[in-house]
Amino acid sequence: MTAFINILLTFTMVFSGIYSQIDFILNPQKYGGITLDTSSLPEPVKKPEFDGFIDLPQVKMHYRIYGKSGRQPLILVHGNGGSVNSLDEAAQYLANDYTVYLPESRCHGQSSDPGEISYELMAADLKDFIAALGLEKPVIVGHSDGAINAITLAADYPDVPGAIIACGANSHPKTFKLYFPLGVAIRNIFAPDKLNDMMLTLPDFTPEYLAKVTCPAYIVSGQFDIMWISDTVYISENIKGSDMAVIKGADHSSYMSHDGRQTYVLAKTWLNGKGI
Q: pTM for the whole thing?
């Protein structure tokens, strides 16, 4: 009976996901469909102000800082398997308007590997990073796993972030389009990795958990992302007062780690609209 229920739930989720993809084509405004115009941008700030490490309670974290001090702090959080280089171009553009911090999550890049990893642990590390640097109400812009970290931080430590922009977050592994977890699972057979294990088993964002997010939130995905658009709707609908956008023609990374100019336009436009 349990197996039948799981099959039924999976079928229902896939059907709902396919419906949302088709409906987006017909009614993009219903899902906050947008196109990012990068025709007029400031010059990127090429040189970081800092590139080094900080000792946190559970991890020695590598990070960079771009932009002059004293501005609104903005933290860019990379995805699974990423590093400071993943969102470096985005940081260079955003540094024109913000003081931009690029931390590397535990078990990633040059940061240390304490042996365990989860979204809760990474969110706690991020909270410790913010406290150690004395940042007041930073904006958190996360991509993929970084977006999940941003949501987790805002739910577990609601007084810490000033706002979050979560790009490409999924609420549960079951909301991925089937090709993606299948590929990760096959890869994990030949090269077992705790980062893959995490993606295949976490997160599990219930409506009650998402309701704990109280800061301004922007829930974003690409039209051709690795999770269904219906999951972006689910996350946004359960974070009270959040805004949602689906970027036309974009995939999971095209507007983030593959093009920092689009990240700049996405973040700057929304934050200006919020007066942040």
A: 0.96
